[in-house]
Amino acid sequence: MVNKLMVVFLGTDILFAMCGGLLIGFSLMAESTMRASPTIANVAQNLLLSRCPLTAGVVNAIFVFLTFILSLPALWLPQNRSWLRAQGWLIVFCAIFTLCLGISIWYGTLTTRSNLGTLWAKESPLTQSLLQQKFNCCGYVNSTSPPFVQDSTCTNSLVAAQKGGCISAFSSFANGYLDLIFTAAFGIVGLDVLLILCVAMVLKYRQEQERYRHIDEKNGLGGL
C-alpha cells in the first residue's frame, strides 16, 4: 500500500515538473516566434501572443521547478514531514499563479472583438495586409472602417466591399487559439490540485506512522 501511494506521488510530481517544462517551453518559443519576421502563417498568432503574459509564464515555470526540487528531500527522508509541508504550500502558490494566468487569458476572450479592433488599428499596413490575405477579407469591420490595405487579396474597392471585413474571421480564430491556451493552463491547475491531494495523503500516512512508532517506543520502555 505504501509503495503504491509513493509511486502515485512520484508520478504526479514528475508530471508536475513536466508541466513546468511546458510552461517555460511555450513561453520561450512564443517569444522567439514573435521576434521572427511576420508572415501569413504566423501573423495572427504573433498578435495574440503579444497579449499573453509570457514573462509571467516563465516566472511561474521557475517556481514549479523550485517546488519539484524541494520535493526530492521529501522522498529521500521518509520520516520527515517538514519538506512535504513546504512543498504543499509552494504547490498551492504555483496553482494560484497558473490559475491567474489562465483567467487573465480567458477574460481577454470575453472582449475579443473590441480588443482586436484596437490591436488592428495599431498595426502597420504590412501586418494588416498579411491578416487580410490570411483570412481573405478587407479592412477590420468592413472595407472602409478602417480602410482596407490594397494588396493581392483586396485589389480594389469593389473587391474589398464584396469580401467584407476581417472582424468575424479574426475573432473566431482568436477565440479558438486562446481557448487552447487557457484550457491548458486550467488543466495544469487540475494536476496541481491532484498533487496537493497526494502530498496530503503522504503527510497523513507519515503522521500515522510516527504515532505508531511513538506507541511502540512507549510499549518498549514500559516492558523494560
SSE layout and pairing:
Blueprint: H1 2-35, H2 43-49, H3 54-76, H4 82-110, H5 112-122, H6 125-135, H7 157-163, H8 167-223
Helix pairs in contact: 1-3, 1-8, 3-4, 4-8, 5-8
Q: Which consecutive residue ranges, at least 5 long each, have pLDDT under 50? A: none
Strand content: under 5%
Number of extended strands: 0
Biggest β-sheet description? none
Gyration radius, in Å: 26 Å
Name the shape in a single word. rod-shaped
Can you walk me through this structure?
The protein has 224 residues and is an all-alpha fold. The chain is built from eight helices and no strands. It has helices spanning 2-35, 43-49, 54-76, 82-110, 112-122, 125-135, 157-163, 167-223. Helix 1 (2-35) packs antiparallel against helix 8 and helix 3 (54-76) runs antiparallel to helix 4 (82-110). The longest helix is centred in the C-terminal third of the chain and has 57 residues, at 167-223. The mean pLDDT is 88.
List keywords for this structure.
single chain; 224 residues
Question: What's the short version?
Answer:
By secondary structure, this protein is an all-alpha fold.
